Amino acid sequence: MEKLVAPSILAADFGNLQRDVEMVNNSKADWFHIDIMDGVFVPNISFGMPVLKSITKHANKTIDVHLMIVDPDRYIQTFADLGADILTVHYEACTHLHRTIQAIKAAGMKAGVALNPHTPIAVLEDIIKDLDVVCIMSVNPGFGGQSFIENTYKKIQQLRNLIEFSEASTLIEIDGGVTDQNANKLIEVGADVLVAGSFVFKSDNPTDTILNLKNIIN
């Protein structure tokens, strides 16, 4: 299967958001990765529904929404209505994770679960076959531009083993500190989707940076 690149809009220039969305449209990127932060679950506030609505109005690729918020169940239908194709919630934010996953699917979206760096893969054993995506956080969530946590490689291998043992079709997504220096190793140990924020949008030529990442991992 082709490996995917998902530029993180959190690192885009919010003063030129339409320009950056259209850059992703015209690039070799596969998904838009959109971080929604509430300042409670993570120590930062990103953007909410009006900005997401503006993004989806111009975006013509898969909308991968990553909720870093408390009580995400309140907003599942809202994000479906705004055009999210994939909705990822944090394991650490969901009291009744199975119910949340079923609600996401009932709203017509693919369902993902994100794990913070301290959360073990084993917590997904009973739900892995219900998941379309698992997002492994390779930095502590809340801010862009952080350094990659090396323990992530081991977690990817553990998750790949769980997926294969369970005969699941879940995609493994890596979010945080992804660059051209670690992309190949991430794919080698089992990743399917690489989220790249600062590495793409802070580069001299984001379109070329995306193309280079795609070439490295495929």
TrEMBL record:
Pfam families: Ribul_P_3_epim. Binds 1 divalent metal cation per subunit. GO terms for molecular function: D-ribulose-phosphate 3-epimerase activity; metal ion binding. Its cofactor is Mn(2+); a divalent metal cation; Fe(2+); Zn(2+). It catalyses: D-ribulose 5-phosphate = D-xylulose 5-phosphate. Its EC number is 5.1.3.1. GO terms for cellular component: cytoplasm. Keywords: Carbohydrate metabolism, Cobalt, Isomerase, Manganese, Metal-binding, Zinc. GO terms for biological process: pentose catabolic process; pentose-phosphate shunt. A divalent metal cation binds at residues 33, 35, 66, 175. Pathway: Carbohydrate degradation. Belongs to the ribulose-phosphate 3-epimerase family. NCBIfam families: PRK05581.1-4, rpe. Catalyzes the reversible epimerization of D-ribulose 5-phosphate to D-xylulose 5-phosphate. This is Ribulose-phosphate 3-epimerase. It comes from Tenacibaculum caenipelagi. The gene is rpe.
